[in-house]
């Protein structure tokens, strides 16, 4: 069976976007992996699937698969690509839509300048709901946040990193580093992702504070490795920075693949993510594996 897809990106976080309203899409984790493969497939950090929603008040259902083949709850950069895709494909004539995801409803809006703003909903700050197991850990209060010590084993050496833990629908652990360019993202990212205190694994963020309205950020993503940008990672980092008393909304986020803007009015309020969404090419692929 040939699968029609669109290759898109949001600040360099790249996607294969698939219309599952007009074609049948029911892939195994191995097939998602094959599609994401950068040599034998199309290549992508995530695959985004557009479905009809059965939830009242929602225009579409949005499903997300990481390049490791696992289905996950949320993807912020993908949400921007999603609204651009459904507009370009004529699946809606609305510029602002409500989208059902595994972790609740989000609302992306196409702006006149071509950028997209997404209401990502309120961050989840309760550790158990992230989910994050705090048993045996002593949290250190900082501002309105709590920093959690994660012990990492690095080639026989033990190192502790202090992280803010929260969910933007998906789990994040954010640490402040002096310089994102020299931060050990490839080395410690996988250890944090698989740390036993995160039962569903975690996205690991490395944030450099430039000033109170500007950060640099690298994210080692769960199920995808380091990406050029992570939308939910940017939301999580800014929420953590504001709660720690280091940042004021709105905040410019420089990722390796582009710039995002995050606004958050505080506890219980939604996080707004603004950034680009770009269509790269259209294609058709016959999956070689079952
Ligand atoms: N790139 C994304 C996040 C995708 C999902 C993530 N890797 C996870 O497993 O939670 C974004 O832009 O938010």
Question: Can you walk through the features of this model?
Answer:
Belongs to the diaminopimelate epimerase family. Pathway: Amino-acid biosynthesis; L-lysine biosynthesis via DAP pathway; DL-2,6-diaminopimelate from LL-2,6-diaminopimelate: step 1/1. It is an enzyme of class 5 (isomerase). The record marks 172, 221 as: Could be important to modulate the pK values of the two catalytic cysteine residues. Its EC number is 5.1.1.7. By secondary structure, the chain is mainly beta. The chain has 2 domains: 2-119 and 276-286, Diaminopimelate Epimerase, Chain A, domain 1 (Roll); 127-269, Roll (Diaminopimelate Epimerase, Chain A, domain 1), CATH 3.10.310.10. It is built from 4 helices and 19 strands. The chain has helices at 29-36, 76-88, 185-193, 231-243; strands at residues 2-10, 13-19, 46-52, 60-66, 71-72, 99-101, 104-110, 116-119, 140-142, 145-154, 157-167, 171-176, 203-211, 214-221, 225-227, 251-255, 258-264, 271-275, 278-286. The chain has a 19-stranded mixed beta sheet that branches. Strand 2, helix 1 (29-36) and strand 3 (46-52) form a beta-alpha-beta unit. The longest helix has 13 residues, at 76-88. It starts with a strand and ends with a strand. The ligand N[C@@H](CCC[C@H](N)C(=O)O)C(=O)O is lined by residues 13, 45-46, 66, 72, 75-78, 170, 203, 221-224, 227, 230-232.
């Amino acid at each position: 069976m040939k699968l029609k897809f669109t290759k898109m990106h949001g600040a360099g976080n790249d996607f294969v976007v698939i219309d599952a309203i007009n074609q049948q899409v029911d892939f195994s984790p191995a097939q998602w992996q094959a599609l994401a493969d950068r040599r034998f497939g199309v290549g992508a950090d995530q695959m985004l699937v557009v479905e009809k929603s059965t939830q009242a008040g929602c225009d579409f259902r949005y499903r997300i698969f990481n390049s490791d083949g696992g289905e996950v709850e949320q993807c912020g950069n993908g949400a921007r690509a999603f609204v651009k895709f459904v507009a370009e494909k004529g699946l809606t004539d609305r510029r602002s839509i409500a989208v059902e995801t595994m972790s609740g409803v989000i609302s992306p809006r196409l702006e006149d300048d071509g950028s997209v703003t997404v209401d990502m909903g309120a961050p989840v700050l309760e550790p158990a709901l992230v989910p994050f197991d705090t048993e045996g850990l002593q949290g250190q209060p900082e501002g309105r946040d709590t920093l959690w010590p994660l012990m990492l084993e690095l080639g026989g050496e033990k190192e502790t990193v202090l992280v803010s833990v929260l969910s933007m629908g998906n789990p994040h652990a954010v640490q402040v580093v002096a310089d994102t360019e020299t931060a050990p993202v490839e080395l410690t990212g996988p250890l944090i992702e698989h740390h036993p205190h995160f039962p569903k694994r975690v996205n690991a963020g490395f944030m450099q504070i430039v000033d109170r309205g500007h950060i640099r950020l690298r994210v080692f993503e769960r199920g995808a490795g380091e990406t050029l940008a992570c939308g939910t990672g940017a939301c999580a980092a800014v929420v953590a920075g504001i709660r720690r008393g280091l940042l004021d909304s709105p905040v410019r986020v420089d990722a390796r693949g582009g710039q995002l803007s995050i606004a958050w009015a505080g506890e219980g309020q939604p996080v707004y993510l603004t950034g680009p969404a770009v269509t790269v090419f259209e294609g058709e692929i016959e999956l070689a594996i079952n």
